[in-house]
Amino acid sequence: MEEEIDNRKINNSFLRDHNYATEADIISTVEFNSTGELLATGDKGGRVVVFQREQESKNQPHRRGEYNVYSTFQSHEPEFDYLKSLEIEEKINKIRWLPQQNAAYFLLSTNDKTVKLWKISERDKRPEGYNLKDEDGRIRDPSTITSLRVPVLRPMDLMVEATPRRVFSNGHTYHINSISVNSDYETYMSTDDLRINLWHLEITNRSFNIVDIKPTNMEELTEVITAAEFHPHQCNTFVYSSSKGSIRLCDMRSAALCDNHSKFFEEPEDPSNRSFFSEIISSISDVKFSHSGRYLMTRDYLTVKVWDLNMESKPLETYQVHDYLRSKLCSLYENDCIFDKFECVWNGSDSVIMTGSYNNFFRMFDRNTKRDVTLEASRENSKPRAILKPRKVCVGGKRRKDEISVDSLDFSKKILHTTWHPSENIIAVAATNNLYIFQDKVN
Amino acid sequence: MDVSAEAKRVMVQALSKLYSSRSQRGGLRLHRSLLLTLVMKSARDIYHSARAACESQELQESQELQGKAAEPPSDPPPPLEKPQQQEEQEEASMEEEVSSPEVSLEVPQRCTQPELDQENRSPARADRHSRKRRGKTATEPDFLPCKRAKMDTGEVLRILQDASLRSNAAGNCARGTDTLPSANTHMPRTVATC
Prior knowledge:
The complex is a heterodimer of chains A (443) and B (194). By secondary structure, chain A is mainly beta. Chain A has a domain at 77-115 and 169-439: Methylamine Dehydrogenase, Chain H. Helices cover 2% and strands 41% of the residues of chain A. Chain A is built from two helices and 32 strands. Chain A has helices spanning 278-282, 329-334, and strands at residues 3-11, 27-32, 38-43, 47-53, 67-74, 79-81, 86-88, 94-97, 105-110, 115-128, 152-168, 178-181, 187-191, 195-200, 208-212, 225-230, 237-242, 247-251, 263-265, 286-289, 295-299, 303-308, 317-320, 344-346, 352-356, 361-366, 372-376, 393-394, 404-405, 417-420, 426-431, 434-440. In chain A, the strands form nine sheets. In chain A, strands 1-32-31-30 form a four-stranded antiparallel β-sheet, with no helix packed on it. Chain A has a four-stranded antiparallel β-sheet with strand order 2-3-4-5, with no helix packed on it. A four-stranded antiparallel β-sheet of chain A has the order 8-9-10-11, with no helix packed on it. Mean pLDDT of chain A is 90; it is low at 1-20. By secondary structure, chain B is mostly helical. Helix content of chain B is 51%, strand content 0%. Chain B is built from five helices and no strands. Chain B has helices at residues 2-21, 30-69, 78-97, 136-139, 153-166. In chain B, helix 1 runs antiparallel to helix 2 and helix 2 (30-69) crosses helix 3. The longest helix of chain B is centred in the first third of the chain and has 40 residues, at 30-69. The model of chain B is unreliable at 73-117, 122-127, 137-142 and 167-194 (pLDDT under 50). The interface between A and B is large, with 43 and 40 residues. Chain A: This is Serine/threonine-protein phosphatase 2A 55 kDa regulatory subunit B.
C-alpha cells in the first residue's frame, strides 16, 4: 500500500524552539470525528487540540484538504483527592466525538476520574451599537445618551470557542480507561478497571452501573477490564475486554446488571508459547468493533486479532505485529515496555486494520489480500509529498541494506495511538509528542 | 540453574516495580499491579519447583553415590521415595508449562555443587525456632541488594493493601478485608526490594 505524506507534521509542543519534548506534550489520544472533518488530540498535560480539514479549493484540485489547528483548550487540570491523598492526573485518556446535530461540535474527553462534554462553536459575528456601553465595553454615562439605536450584528474575525457543557464526576473509584458513545446518541458508557457506568448525556449527577467485576474479597482479583465499546448500530450491545485476553459481549436488554455475558470470546492459550510473561502479553489493550458491526478487533502485546461475532471459540484472523519481540520479553519487562498499551483501528471499509509498534513503526494489514506493510513516522525519513517507504525488521542472520535489526529498535519511540478517517484513506499517527497525518496518493 | 536464576530476577524486579509504583503520580494502577503480582506468583512457583527438583536431584545423586560405594543398589528408604516421585512429577508438569527459550529446563536438571548452592537456599531450617536475630551472611543471598531496608511478605501485603484501600470505594475505610492478591506464605523470607 502506498501512501503520500501530507506535509503536516504538527509538533504539539508550544515550546517550538526547544528540541526536547516536555512530558506534558506527549499525545495520549487521537480521534477523527464522524465525518473526518475534525481531528482531536489529547495530551498528558490535559490539553485538547482540534484540527480542521480545510476546504478543498478548486484552484488547486491536486492539493487535498490539509488539517490546520482549529481550537486548543485545557480540558482537564491536575486535581488532588484529599480523602485518599492521591493526585489525579490531568492526562487525557480518551476523546470521543458526538455525531454532529447542529453547527456546533461536541466531544467527550476523559482523564482518570472525570468525563467532560465540550462544545466547540464558532463565532464570526458580534453585536455592535449598544446603547448603554460603548465599543470598548465601558459603561456610557446615561446623561450623554440622546438617542436610541438597535444593535446590529457585524462580521468579526472567526473565533472558535470551547466551553465545558457537562462534567460527569465521581462516577469511578478506579482509573477510567475508555469511553464510548452509544448509537442512540443519548447515552454513553465510561469504563474503569472494574466497573462500567452508563450515563445520559444530559444528566451529570447520576449514572448506572452496568458491569461490576469487583470481587468481594480483593485478594481474589484475577482480571480487570481493559477496554469497552458500544456496538456501532445496536444500542443495547456492547463489549468489554479483560486483562486475561477474553472479550465479553453483553446485551443490556437481558438484565440491568450485565455481569453475565451473552457471548464470551477467548482463544485457548498455546502451551508451547508459555513463559513468565504469558499473562502480561495476553492482556488485551484495545477492542474495536468494525464499522459494519459484524467483527471485533482486539490488540494484545504481540498480535492483532479479528473476531467474528458469531464465533466465540477462536478469532477469524490473527496478525503478528512484531513477533520478533517474543524472544525479547524479558528485556521488555525490565524496561517496562511490556506494559505498553497499543491501540488498533479499522479503515472505513473494514478491509484494512492498523496498529502501532516501536521505533515509530506502525503496521497495516490488508484483510483481503493478506498483505501487510510496516511504515515509519519520522521527520528524518519522510519528506513532504514523498511516498512512505516500507520498512523491514531483520530478525537474525544477514541484515539487508535497508533493514533494521531488532536490537537497533528504539523502544522509547512507540506508536500507541492511531486513528483512521471514517471514509477516506487518511490516517493520523501519534509519535510521542508529534502528530503525523498521512494521506493516500492522489491520482 | 537458569530457570531459578531467571525466576529470581523476575520476582525481584516485580517487587521493585510494585514498590516504585506506590509513589507514581496518579496513584496505584490496578491493572499493572495485578499483572506484576501474577508474574511474581508464577515466577515464585517456578523458582520453588526448580529448587525442589534440584534438591531431589542432589538427593538422588548422593544416594546413587552411596549405593555404588556400598552394596548393589537397594531401594531408597520409603519416606524419601514418595517426595522424590512428587518432585519428578512436578518437574515434568513444569516442563510442559514452561518451555520458552527464556525458561529452558533441561532434564535431568544438573544443579551446581551443593556447597556453592548454600546461598540460594531458603533460610536454614534449624534457625526457624530460634529467636535470635540472624546474621546477614547466613540469611541474605548475595544476589539481592542489601543496602535498602528489607521487606518481608507482611510488608508487601501491607503495601498492596494500603494501595488497594486508597483506590477503593470512597470513604469506606472499614473494608478491612480488601487486599490485592497476596504473595502468600510460600514467599522466601529474605526477598528484598530495590
